[in-house]
Amino acid sequence: MLSVSLSASSSAIASGRARSEAAAAARRPGGIRLCGLRGDAPACGSLRLSHAAASLATRRAVPRAAASGNSAVGGSGGGFDYDLVIIGAGVGGHGAALHAVEEGLKTAIIEGDVVGGTCVNRGCVPSKALLAVSGRMRELHDEHHMKSLGLQVSAAGYDRQAVADHANNLASKIRSNLTNSMKAIGVDILTGFGTIVGKQKVRYGKAGFPDKEITAKNIIIATGSVPFVPKGIEIDGKTVFTSDHALKLESVPDWIAIVGSGYIGLEFSDVYTALGSEVTFVEALDQLMPGFDPEIAKLAQRVLINTRKIDYHTGVFASKITPAKDGKPVLIELIDAKTKEHKETLEVDAALIATGRAPFTNGLGLENINVVTQRGFIPVDERMQVTDADGNVVPNLFCIGDANGKLMLAHAASAQGISVVEQISGRDHILNHLSIPAACFTHPEISMVGLTEPQAREKADKEGFEVSVVKTSFKANTKALAENEGDGIAKLIYRPDTGEILGVHILGLHAADLIHEASNAIALGTRLQELKLAVHAHPTLSEVLDELFKAAKLQPKEVQEHKQNHPPQPLLKVLSFITSLLSSQKRDW
């Protein structure tokens, strides 16, 4: 059996590149190349995007012809059933599968549950449906806001079941779209739970049916994650539940405790308060929203928490949570996070456990290839190649998305999958995770990309460069004022000597949409010198970023050029310090 490794000889890589280039030429009459998504941003990576208009018909026609032979018994050449097998059909697996077919790879995807994974079925998709409702409810209930626009609205209400149906119907529609998109281009969707039984071998099957075994040149693990429930918390799915249950919206409790104040907790607090619930946050750390830039978190607390029916307990653990039963409420025992002493017991109608997510990696057969997980996560290198217990790369095996723990976001999983396919196709590619944006879809929204200010200053101290920060307000934006949505801020963290963007954080109207200009600038290595010259339509919210980039104060060109030609020399700095120290001691003598 032929074994193809990423560490293969240059001739093997060249052969793979030639094959993928030939396939690409046949399929993409208008292909373009984009730089970026590498840690060394100015260097040009090979992320290829087909010209949409030119390749749409080709994409639909060519894969259908290939699909007739795209079965486990057909073979992909070289003795393998497939060029690529993906275990897990979530957003990450789906993105990898589509790109693999575009690159001419015979591809299969194994799914033991439903296509779409967590994001589509129990995460970002149905939650956005609920948040769409909460946003409209919040606006209709804001009498001052409506009057300022000259509108008069009578009391607004909602139908809980209709709201729940909206979320469920959206998930079903997106799930169907993903399934059809893969079938249309010839991806084999294999039903069952996938297990790695050996090098380049996967077994899959479902209860009541015999297992099947297939071979693949390359395998991607994309099994995602499940809600993490700490010890001492009893889940009944009715009064104590995770986000999986909450998205069904089977009830709207009068008083609900949310354990955890990250993305999930914040979004559900937005939903529940808009629908009439009172919310209590339980946060183990000393401040709410610990993963956000501190300045943004402080402002977000003022806008999203202090003005609503929300209270909170910080620096405490929920050591035990008992579901409601026999007429008794949900009981939450709080202990001090540091001393572990009992603080108090809360009595609420319901509790949502939003303490993060855990990788879903059990039963994958990793022991068959000497791979040991780390807190459940599959260890990978910067190219998403799985590493074994001895620290060696496992040839032809990759892991993307929540299962590797690098960045637990659906679009990060998709980007990692595309990066892996680039490597399989013979083009080295390293994804710059600092260029991947994140968003919290509250009202108003929060978004971010890159480093927080403390992270940037820590990096600057270690590497010896300056950090500058500028901010702009939504109150100065015409479009935001027209919408009467002036609450918001955009923050830029950058290097004044080079113009490099280190981080951008936004709180305000449509922040989740605005962040991509900054994330793409980081990905493509675009500096502030260029961004200052960019043109934005007026009046639009995009001008918030325009003003932000223009507000950055860069060092004069001659200073920048001098620093580029004379980089810092740490050894000389140390010697200079020692010399000055010895001189001062000599004077003291």
Question: β content, as a range?
Answer: 15-25%
Helix content: 25-40%
Shape: globular
Poorly predicted ranges (pLDDT <50, ≥5 residues)?
1-74
| Quaternary structure | single chain
What does this structure look like?
This protein has 589 residues and is of the alpha/beta class. The chain is 37% helix and 22% strand. It has 18 helices and 25 strands. Helix 3 (91-102) packs parallel to helix 11 and helix 5 (124-141) crosses helix 9 (263-274).
Compile the SSE list and pairings:
Layout lengths: L9 H18 L4 E3 L12 E3 L2 H16 L14 E6 L3 H12 L4 E5 L5 H6 L1 H18 L1 H6 L11 H25 L3 E4 L1 E6 L2 E5 L6 E10 L3 E3 L12 E3 H4 L8 E5 L3 H12 L3 E6 L10 H12 L4 E5 L1 E7 L7 E7 L5 E7 L1 E4 L3 E3 L25 E3 L5 E7 L10 H15 L13 E3 L4 E6 L2 H11 L4 E6 L4 H5 L6 E6 L6 E8 L2 H14 L3 H4 L11 H9 L5 H9 L4 H19 L1
Parallel strand pairs: 3-4, 3-8, 4-5, 8-20, 10-17, 11-12, 11-17, 12-13
Antiparallel strand pairs: 1-2, 6-7, 7-8, 9-18, 14-15, 15-16, 19-20, 21-22, 22-25, 23-24, 24-25
Helix pairs in contact: 3-11, 5-7, 5-9
Overview features:
37% helix, 589 residues, 18 helices, alpha/beta, eight-stranded mixed β-sheet, five-stranded parallel β-sheet, 22% strand
What's this, in brief?
This protein has 18 helices and 25 strands. With 589 residues, it is of the alpha/beta class. Strands 3, 4, 5, 6, 7, 8, 19 and 20 form an 8-stranded mixed beta sheet that branches. Strands 10-17-11-12-13 form a 5-stranded parallel beta sheet.
